[in-house]
Amino acid sequence: MPKKVVVKIPALTKKFNISLRELSRLSDVRHAALSELSNGKRESISFSHIERIADVLNITDIREIIDLVETDD
Is 4:72 a contact under the CB 8 Å cutoff? Predict the structure, then answer.
């Protein structure tokens, strides 16, 4: 089965009780980019964005931010 990388923005905002706008402000990642990632409308994320999100939320395991899932495509 084909696989797809998923950025787990909704899970992160829920887990850390933070809004998308606040995550954007703290991580210096555009709100629009986070929103598109959250809604599955963005195909890519830069390593620097992952690093900034991890830094702001004190995440040490990248699997908390991204996941590899099987798709039906």
Answer: no
In whole angstroms, give the CA distance from residue 14 to residue 58.
15
Non-local CB neighbours of 56 within 8 Å, separated by 6+ positions? 23, 26, 27
φ, ψ of residue 62 to 5 degrees: the values are -60, -25
CB distance 49 to 27 below 8 Å: yes
User: Which tokens belong to 53?
Assistant: 């999100």
Q: Write down the pLDDT at residue 43.
A: 82
| Cβ–Cβ < 8 Å for 59, 6 | no
Q: pTM for this structure?
A: 0.87
d(CA 35, CA 2): 25
Alpha-helical runs (H) found in the chain: 9-15, 20-27, 31-38, 47-57
